[in-house]
Write a structure and sequence with these properties.
Elements (H helix, E strand, L loop, with lengths): L1 E2 L7 E2 L12 E3 L14 H12 L3 H12 L20 E2 L7 E2 L11 E4 L6 H8 L10 E3 L5 E3 L6 E2 L5 H6 E6 L11 H18 L8 E3 L17 H17 L1
Parallel strand pairs: 4-8, 6-10, 6-11, 7-10
Antiparallel strand pairs: 1-3, 2-3, 5-9, 7-8
Helix pairs in contact: 1-2, 5-6
GO molecular function, one term: N-acetylmuramoyl-L-alanine amidase activity
Keywords: Cell wall biogenesis/degradation, Hydrolase
Protein name: N-acetylmuramoyl-L-alanine amidase
Length: 249
């Protein structure tokens, strides 16, 4: 979540306060990922036809693919309980906290956004299941290294506070507080690095600080996570090592 200026899960906001969804400037903040396009308009419905008439069939196909997943009641078939990271525990987020999609076919995935929950793993799970929270990340990594997945990677999680970045990224929360170095354990770093390496391998994302970023680096974000105690040099080094292992297997 990360610290936000407003507070709540998925990035700490620029402030303090314990508990995911309540205080600190971290984690996916309430409304942090709220999209403005949850309802489809008449103009949007005409995009595909207009593009086709103009002779831009590729544009029409892409736009129609995006619009299809915004139609009320449309949902790509899912395998119940399926996860994208082997060994992750599946706990479904409220559908109000993400948007059904078909990534990367309708939206390119080229970023991983690192968050801090500003609270316990249990509190983050609770707020991500709350339809009134209006924000959630794809994953939460616990202090013990265990991974909980709450939204499939193909769907758009409301975690970054920026619609474009929501559509193009995977959000990874980390249990803890931005102002406590003790939150970030060896087990957490190692497990999160494997998770991010797998995401980068699946979508061809370069493992560098332009593509693996903190919530604080999202344009327009009001969160400060993962904060000053997150060791970016260590993390990127671990992700690259794990990415190499993925390539060799």
């Amino acid at each position: 979540m990360g610290a936000t200026r407003k507070g709540t899960a998925t990035g700490a906001t620029r402030g303090t306060g314990p508990g995911a969804g309540k205080g600190g400037r971290g984690g996916a903040g309430a409304g942090a990922g709220k999209d403005a396009d949850r309802r489809i308009g008449r103009r949007a419905l005409l995009i595909g036809g207009a593009a086709a008439l103009a002779g831009t069939a590729a544009l029409a196909r892409d736009e129609l693919g995006r619009l299809w997943w915004r139609m009320p009641g449309v949902e790509k078939p899912r395998v119940q309980g399926a996860v994208d990271f082997r060994g992750a525990r599946w706990v479904a987020a409220s559908p109000a906290n993400f948007r059904w999609a078909d990534r990367p076919d309708d939206y390119t995935i080229d970023r991983v956004v690192v968050h801090v929950t500003q609270g316990s793993l249990a509190s983050a799970v609770k707020v991500f299941q709350d339809p009134g929270h209006r924000a959630a990340a794809h994953y939460i990594v616990g202090r013990d290294g265990r991974v909980t997945q709450m939204i499939r990677e193909l769907d758009v999680a409301f975690h970054a506070g920026n619609r474009e970045y929501n559509e193009r990224s995977v959000g990874v929360e980390h249990e803890g507080f931005v102002d406590r170095a003790s939150s970030f354990t060896d087990a957490m770093y190692a497990s999160s690095a494997r998770l991010t390496a797998g995401i980068c391998a699946r979508y061809g994302i370069p493992v560098d600080r332009d593509h693996v970023i903190g919530h604080v680096e999202v344009p327009g974000a009001d969160h400060t996570d993962p904060g000053p105690h997150w060791d970016w040099d260590r993390y990127i080094r671990l992700v690259r090592a794990a990415r190499g292992a993925v390539t060799r297997t």
